[in-house]
Write a structure and sequence with these properties.
The protein is mainly β. The protein is about 10% helix and about 35% strand. It contains twelve helices and 59 strands. Helix 5 runs parallel beside helix 6 and helix 9 runs parallel beside helix 10. The chain is elongated, with a radius of gyration of 31 Å.
Length: about 950
C-alpha cells in the first residue's frame, strides 16, 4: 500500500514482520504466544547493574503504576484498570498487599472474592505487566493502622521491631501471602513478579528485624530481588546488616497541601550514587498526586498541583537521573470502602488527584505520562547512559545536560531552564550536537532556536539508530517508532506552535514527499543529511523513500496530537492506532487484526500496520472509518424512601445482657487509661466503626453529671444519653493531631432514679486507627471511651460494650456496631415494610441515628462503562453525617458540614448496573433542629462504549443469613 492510499484510508493495514512468540514487546513485557503454552514453566533471569534491571539479558525500564486492589472491590474492574495502565505505556504495576484486608483475626485469612490476590496476579500477567510485590508487613498507604490488622493494636510488643509477639504475627502473614506471591514469580516462569519489597519507609535501626524479614521471604520461596523503600532518600538500608538486594527510596516534592498552586524546583539525585553503588536507581514511590483530608480543598486541586507541568518536569528529571525503576504513587487511587482509611489524612475517596480518577477515567495528566512511557520503552538506548555533563549553549538561562549510551554512542540532550528549573519565562537557545555523524549547531535553520517556555523539559536524541533509519538529531522529542516490515514509522512531537528540526542520514538523496502539513526539506549532499524544518501544529506527515534505507513514514505532531496515538503489540509485531478514547489491546490472526478499546464519542480511527492485514475488527465488529460512541443513558430518580429511628440502645429498658462486659483492669496499650475499667474498643475485639457502651449505676441522688473522654480519630463524633434522655453530641476537630474530645455533661433535673438502676448510653464512632509511620506504635492510639467519671456522688459504674462483627463476604472493615448494622438494615431484602414513608429532603426532629432505605433498578448497557456516583445536596449549615450502604457494602461516609466529598463513587458490581439495588443510609443527626437528610441522587460520572465486561460481586442479602444481633 503506497503512502497516498495510506493517507486516504481511515484504517491502513499492512504485513507485519513475524517475531518469535513470547519475545519482549516494546514496553518490556513478553507478549503471550499465539500457540498453546507447554505445561512446563520456563524460568527467567533477573539481574541488574548500575543502569537498570536486566531480564533475560535485555535491559528493562520499569515504568510502574501504584494500584491498590483493596480500593477497587471487583476483580473485573482490576482488569479494566490494569488494561488502561498498559495502554498508556506502563509496563509494571506495584501492589501493596494489605494485611488488614485479609485478616479479621489472628491466624484467620481470606483470599477469596474481592480479596483473591491469586487472581489479581494472574490478571496482571495476562495483561502483560510486571509486578512489584509489596506485602509489608507495614505498608502505610493512608490506611487504618497503615495496613496492620487492627487486632494487632492489642499486642504488648512494639510493632516494626523484633518483639516476639509482633514477629509471630507478621511471620504468619508472610507465610500466607508469600505462598501466593511465590507462585507468580518471573524467575520460575509462572508469573509477573520481578521485585519484592520488605517493610516500607522504615526509618528505624532494628537490623535484626530487617534480616528476619529477608530470611522469611527467602524461606517462603521468594527468589526475585528484594528491595526496600526508604523514606526521604536518606540511604537507610542501602548497605550493611538488614539491607536487601536493592535500594529504593521515595519522594513527594509537591507536598500534600493541595491549597498550594505551585511546586518547588528540581533536585539532582546523583548524590545517591555513592550509597547505591553498582545497582540501579529505584523510586519505590514517586509523587503522582496527593491525599486530601477531611475539610480539604478536594482532589481536583491535587490534580492541578501535580498536573502535566509537574509530570513533565519531575519525571523527565527522573529519566535524566537514570531512575530506571520508577513507581508513580498513585496512578489510580480508588475508594476507601468500609473503614479502611486513616482519618488523619483521607476521607472515603482516595482519588489522590492521580492520572486516572476514582471512576477509572483518563485525565489531563495522561498525555505527558504516555509520551514519557512510550519514549523510555521505545528508545532502549536510554536505559544505559553515562553523564557527559552540562554543555554550554547560546543562552545561559537554559541548561543542556548531555548523556551518552556507552555501547551505541547515542546521545541524549536534556533541556530545561537553568538552576532548579523554576523559571517562568520563555527563552530560546542553540547548542552544539557532536555525534559520530558530525558536529552541528542546533538548530541549523537561520532565524530559529530551541524554545523552552516556562517550566518545560525536553529530551532530545542524536546519533541514534531509529529502527532502520539514522537520526542525526532532532529538536522534536521521540514518542515512539516501529518497524512495520515494509516501512518504518516514527512519531516525533513538540509543543504546539514551536519550531522543530529533524536531520536524517542517507547514503544518497532520498525521495521526500510531504503528505500533510507544512514541512521544508533541505538535502545536504556533502554530509548525506536530509533536514526537515516545520512547526509543531496538528499532524504533519512525510514519506521518505530510497537513500539506501527502507521507507520511512515520519509523523511530526504537536504534543497533544501525538498523545492521540496508541502503540500496541501483537505476536507478529507492533501496531499504531490514532484515535479513540482508549485502545486496550490488539490481536493478529492471519489477515485479521482485532482491536479492543473504548470511545466517549463517535471516533475515526487510523491504523498503522504492515502489509497483509485485510480485515480489522473493533470490539468484535468490523471496523469502518468511524467507530461508534456510547448511547445516552438516563439514571432513575431515588424515590420511595422508607425511614426509621434507630437508637434502642439509649432506652434504659434495652436488654444488653448479651453484650460484652467491659471490666478489664489492665491493657497492653502504651496509653494507659485515666479511669478504670479499660474501655478501649480494641481491647474487647471491636476494631472498626461505631461502638455502643451502656454504663449501669445505682443512683444515690447525689450524682450531678458525668465527664467523658472519647478517642475517635480526626473528624470523629460521639453522643451520650442518660436513662434515654439525650445529653449531647461531641465532634472531634479536624486539626493536625486531633484525636480525642471530652465533655462534662450535667444531668437534667429529675432524670435519675435514686436507688434503682440507671443507664448511661454512649455511642462512639471510631473513624479509624492512626498509621504507624514513625514506628512508635501510633496505630495503638486508643479508640472508644478513654475515661468516664460520674460527678457528684460516685457509685460503682459497670459497663457493657457492643460493636460490629466481620462480614464473611464483605470483610472485617465493612460493619460497625450500629443496631441497624447488627440486625441487617443495610442489607437487601430487609423487611422494612413497617417503616415510615418519607421524601427527601427530610427534617429530623431528634438527635442520634436514623435509617433511610430505598431500592432502584438500573438498565445500563452491558457494552458501556458508566461510572455512577451518589450525590448529596444540602446546606452545609445542617449538621449530620451518613454511612452509605449499597447492597450491603459500606461504600463511604458523608459529613454534610465538613466535606469536601459530596459525590461518592459506587463501584460497578457492588452497584448492579443491570438489576435491582438497595441503598441504605445510616444518618447521624447531631441535634433536634439541623439534622435529617438532604437531596440524594444518582449521577452518571462518565459514559464510554467499551470492550470490557464487568460482572457483579457477591452481595449476600438479609435472607441469606441474618447478622448477629
Amino acid at each position: 500500500m503506497d503512502a497516498k492510499s495510506l493517507l486516504a484510508a481511515a484504517a491502513a493495514a499492512v504485513v507485519m514482520v513475524p517475531v518469535s512468540a513470547g519475545s519482549p514487546d516494546a514496553v518490556g513485557r513478553p507478549e503471550p504466544a499465539a500457540a498453546a503454552q507447554p505445561a512446563a514453566h520456563t524460568g527467567h533471569t533477573i539481574s541488574y547493574d548500575r543502569y537498570s534491571l536486566i531480564i533475560d539479558g535485555r535491559r528493562v525500564w520499569l515504568w510502574s503504576a501504584e494500584f491498590h486492589y483493596f480500593r477497587l472491590p471487583n476483580p473485573d474492574l482490576w482488569r479494566d484498570q490494569l488494561e488502561k495502565l498498559k495502554a498508556v505505556g506502563f509496563n509494571a504495576v506495584s501492589f501493596y498487599f494489605s494485611w488488614a484486608y485479609h485478616s479479621p483475626a489472628p491466624g484467620v485469612y481470606d483470599f477469596t472474592g474481592v480479596r483473591d490476590i491469586d487472581r489479581l496476579l494472574d490478571i496482571a500477567d495476562d495483561v502483560g505487566l510486571y509486578v512489584l510485590a509489596r506485602p509489608g508487613p507495614y505498608i502505610n498507604a493512608e490506611l487504618d493502622s497503615g495496613g496492620f490488622p487492627a487486632w494487632l493494636t492489642t499486642q504488648a510488643g512494639r510493632a516494626r521491631t523484633s518483639a516476639d509477639d509482633y514477629q509471630a504475627a507478621w511471620e504468619d502473614w508472610y507465610d500466607h501471602v508469600n505462598h501466593i506471591i511465590a507462585r507468580h514469580q518471573l524467575t520460575d516462569g509462572r508469573g509477573p513478579v520481578v521485585l519484592y519489597q520488605i517493610e516500607n519507609e522504615y526509618d528505624g535501626s532494628d537490623a535484626a528485624y530487617m534480616e528476619e524479614l529477608k530470611a522469611a521471604a527467602r524461606a517462603d520461596g521468594i527468589t526475585v530481588p528484594l528491595f526496600h523503600n526508604d523514606k526521604g532518600r536518606n540511604l537507610r538500608w542501602a548497605s550493611g546488616p538488614g539491607a536487601p538486594d536493592l535500594y529504593g527510596t521515595d519522594t513527594y516534592p509537591a507536598g500534600f497541601d493541595c491549597n498550594r498552586t505551585s511546586f518547588p524546583g528540581l533536585t539532582d539525585y546523583r548524590f545517591l550514587r555513592a550509597g547505591v553503588g553498582d545497582r540501579p536507581f529505584i523510586w519505590g514511590e514517586f509523587q503522582g498526586g496527593a491525599f486530601d483530608p477531611w475539610g480539604g480543598p478536594g482532589y481536583e486541586r491535587c490534580r492541578q498541583l501535580t498536573g502535566p507541568t509537574f509530570e513533565r518536569m519531575f519525571y523527565d528529571n527522573n529519566i535524566e537521573n537514570q531512575f530506571t525503576v520508577q513507581n508513580i504513587y498513585m496512578t489510580y487511587g480508588g475508594t476507601n470502602t468500609g473503614w479502611q482509611a486513616d482519618p488523619n489524612v483521607v476521607y472515603t475517596s482516595y482519588d489522590y488527584g492521580a492520572a486516572f480518577t476514582e471512576q477509572r477515567e483518563l485525565t489531563e495528566k495522561i498525555p505527558v505520562l504516555k509520551q514519557q512511557a512510550y519514549l523510555v520503552h521505545t528508545v532502549e538506548d536510554l536505559a544505559k547512559t553515562d553523564d557527559l555533563g552540562q554543555q554550554d549553549g547560546t543562552n545561559p538561562a537554559i541548561r543542556v545536560w548531555v548523556k551518552q549510551n556507552p555501547d551505541t554512542q547515542a546521545k541524549f540532550y536534556f533541556v530545561r531552564h537553568a538552576g532548579n528549573g523554576t523559571a517562568a519565562t520563555t527563552d530560546s537557545t542553540s547548542f552544539t550536537v557532536d555525534v559520530p555523524d558530525g558536529t552541528y549547531t542546533v538548530p541549523q535553520q537561520p532565524g530559529t532556536a530551541l524554545t523552552i517556555a516556562g517550566r518545560d523539559f525536553k529530551i532530545l536524541a542524536a546519533g541514534y539508530d531509529l529502527e532502520r533509519q539514522r537520526l542525526v538529531y532532532s529538536t522534536s522529542e521521540i514518542m515512539t517508532h516501529a518497524n512495520l516490515g515494509d516501512r518504518d514509522v516514527a512519531l516525533l512531537h513538540g509543543r504546539a506552535g514551536e519550531p522543530g528540526e529533524t536531520v536524517l542520514r542517507y547514503a544518497s538523496e532520498p525521495r521526500v514527499r510531504v503528505l500533510a502539513g507544512d514541512v521544508d526539506t533541505v538535502w545536504d549532499a556533502a554530509r548525506g543529511d536530509l533536514r526537515l524544518n516545520y512547526v509543531h501544529q496538528g499532524l504533519a506527515r512525510v514519506r521518505v523513500d530510497g537513500g539506501g534505507r527502507p521507507p520511512l513514514e515520519l509523523l511530526l505532531a504537536d504534543s497533544d496530537t501525538a498523545s492521540t496515538f496508541w502503540r500496541l503489540e501483537t505476536s507478529q509485531g507492533p501496531v499504531l492506532v490514532r484515535g479513540g478514547y482508549l485502545v486496550r489491546s490488539a490481536e493478529r490472526h492471519g489477515a485479521t487484526l482485532k482491536l479492543r478499546g473504548d470511545t466517549d464519542q463517535p471516533t475515526e480511527l487510523e491504523v498503522f500496520a504492515g502489509p497483509g492485514v485485510r480485515q480489522i475488527f473493533w470490539n468484535g465488529h468490523p471496523l469502518r472509518t468511524t467507530v461508534p460512541g456510547p448511547r445516552d443513558v438516563t439514571l432513575p430518580q431515588l424515590t420511595h424512601w422508607r425511614y426509621t429511628r434507630d437508637v434502642p440502645e439509649a432506652d434504659p429498658a434495652f436488654d444488653d445482657s448479651s453484650w460484652v462486659v467491659a471490666d478489664k483492669a489492665t491493657t497492653n496499650n502504651p496509653t494507659q487509661p485515666a479511669t478504670l475499667p479499660v474501655l478501649y474498643t480494641d481491647d474487647y475485639g471491636f476494631h472498626y466503626g461505631d461502638v455502643w457502651y451502656r454504663g449501669h449505676f445505682t443512683a444515690t441522688g447525689g450524682e450531678t453529671g458525668i465527664s467523658l473522654t472519647a478517642g475517635t480519630g480526626r473528624a470523629g463524633v460521639w453522643a451520650a444519653w442518660v436513662n434515654g434522655v439525650y445529653l449531647g453530641t461531641v465532634t472531634t476537630g479536624t486539626g493536625s493531631g486531633e484525636q480525642n474530645s471530652s465533655r462534662d455533661f450535667t444531668f437534667p433535673d429529675g432524670v435519675l432514679k435514686p436507688g434503682q438502676d440507671n443507664v448511661i448510653a454512649v455511642l462512639v464512632r471510631n473513624m479509624g486507627h492512626n498509621e504507624d509511620g514513625g514506628k512508635n506504635d501510633a496505630h495503638k492510639a486508643p479508640r472508644g471511651l478513654l475515661a468516664a467519671t460520674l460527678r457528684g456522688a460516685q457509685p460503682a459504674l459497670t459497663w457493657r460494650i457492643q460493636g460490629g462483627s466481620p462480614d464473611p463476604v464483605r470483610g472485617p472493615m465493612n460493619n460497625g456496631g450500629l443496631h441497624g448494622e447488627r440486625v441487617g438494615y443495610h442489607l437487601s431484602g430487609y423487611p422494612d415494610h413497617g417503616w415510615a414513608d418519607v421524601s427527601l429532603p427530610h427534617q429530623e426532629t431528634a438527635p442520634g441515628i436514623a435509617w433511610y432505605r430505598t431500592t432502584v433498578t438500573l438498565h445500563l448497557p452491558s457494552d458501556q462503562d458508566v461510572p455512577v456516583g451518589l450525590r448529596f445536596t444540602d446546606d452545609p449549615a445542617r449538621k449530620y453525617r451518613v454511612l452509605i450502604f449499597v447492597n450491603g457494602w459500606n461504600v463511604g461516609q458523608y459529613i454534610n458540614e465538613l466535606g469536601p466529598q459530596r459525590v461518592f463513587t459506587l463501584p460497578q458490581g457492588i452497584l448492579r448496573h443491570r438489576g435491582q439495588n438497595t441503598i441504605a443510609l445510616a444518618v447521624w443527626s447531631y441535634d433536634e433542629s439541623s439534622g435529617g437528610l438532604g437531596q440524594v441522587s444518582l449521577e452518571a460520572l462518565g459514559n464510554y462504549a467499551t470492550g470490557i465486561r464487568v460482572g457483579n460481586v457477591d452481595s449476600p442479602g438479609y435472607r441469606d443469613g441474618c447478622p448477629r444481633r
